[in-house]
Amino acid sequence: MLVACERDEADSSKPGAEAASTARPAPAPATSALPYDTPRLLFLPDAGDLAPPEAPFEELLPKAPVIGRCPADMVEINHRFCIDRYESSLRDTAQQRTISPYYHPEHGQLAATHRRWRAAAARSSTRLGRSLAVPEPPAYQVEEAFDIRATSERGVTPNGYLNLERATRACKNAGKRLCTRDEWVLACRGERARKFPYGDAYVAGRCNVFREAHPAVLLHGDASINHLDPRLNLTQDHGRPLLRRTGETSECRSEWGSDAVYDMVGNLDEWVDDPEGTFVGGFFARATKEGCDAAIQSHPAEYFDYSLGTRCCAD
Questions:
Q1: Cβ distance 285 to 211 under 8 Å?
Q2: pTM here?
Q3: DSSP one-letter code for 71
Q4: Rounded CA gap, 84 and 93, in Å?
Q5: What is the spatial distance between Cα 288 and Cα 217, in angstroms, rounded to a whole number?
Q6: Which member of 28, 38, 39, 70 lies 3.0 to 4.6 Å from 8 by CB, making a disulfide possible if both were Cys?
């Protein structure tokens, strides 16, 4: 279910906002300017999933190997293609500096979001919202333009707040590309072709999905607002982080031979290569038991929020 409403309280006073919220926006071209307010389509954590791909799983299997060994940070999928072992974390292309995972990785948007929440955090509606500090991005990200490159690393916070254009660019700058949905599903199911990375039936806690707490409720008392707050992925549930570090959920592994791909279900939703705007897998607070088939579609290409990341593929 796609819910049309305001994602960020700052937008609710704009003329025509109510009318705009009922219309389905067309995907924006990759070269369009990024909005410094917020897109209006909202995906709530109890939203329904898309149906799985229509083709039987057997038809998704590669017919013959076409490549050799994958790079060290990727896993070879049935000798056909490579996929990142972990969800993407980002570095800048100039000096390989770490990109903050708590902001959209574009200078103008990041600076605007940082200014807003430094001023607004103290007025949050919950005690946690008023007390949790706003993370400081590296100074260079606030002061200058930068470009991004995706990396696949264990034990780091993956980057959320990605739109489709940024996800595509990060993979391209790493010499990779976004995965197609069929590739992503194939990799997620593992060599035993299971619905979940760990088996055929949902088991609570095996992957970081369907968590009881929602970060916007913890900070703002409402799951439908303030989805650009840079503190959302810093929240905890009973002392445990809602967003986990890459590879930390060790049982959530899609096995391929002696190797595995981690966190393909849960942690962050992941963009795939689809101009209609599709992300897959489910994020930590999404109420889904669809495993590798979980997907949300028809978001505009400029859409982003705290729950959206990616990982890359290569031929």
A1: yes
A2: 0.82
A3: P
A4: 18
A5: 18
A6: 38
Tokens of 300: 């505009």
Concatenating the DSSP letter of every residue in 166-190 gives HHHHHHHHTT-EEPPHHHHHHHHHT
171 CB contacts (<8 Å, ≥6 apart)?
Answer: 88, 150, 177, 178, 310, 312, 313
Q: Is the pLDDT of residue 2 over 50?
A: no
Q: Which residue has the tokens 């607004």?
A: 120
Domain assignments of the chain as residue spans, ordered by start = 3-314
With the C-alpha atoms ordered 284, 289, 292, 294, is the resulting torsion angle positive or negative? negative
Q: Are 47 and 296 in contact (CB under 8 A)?
A: yes
pLDDT, mean of residues 289-294: 97
* Token pair belonging to 276: 């209609």
Task: List pLDDT tens digits, range 165-187.
Answer: 999 999 999 999 999 999 999 99
Q: How far apart, in whole angstroms, are the C-alpha atoms of residue 151 and residue 158?
A: 10
Cα end-to-end span (Å), the chain: 34
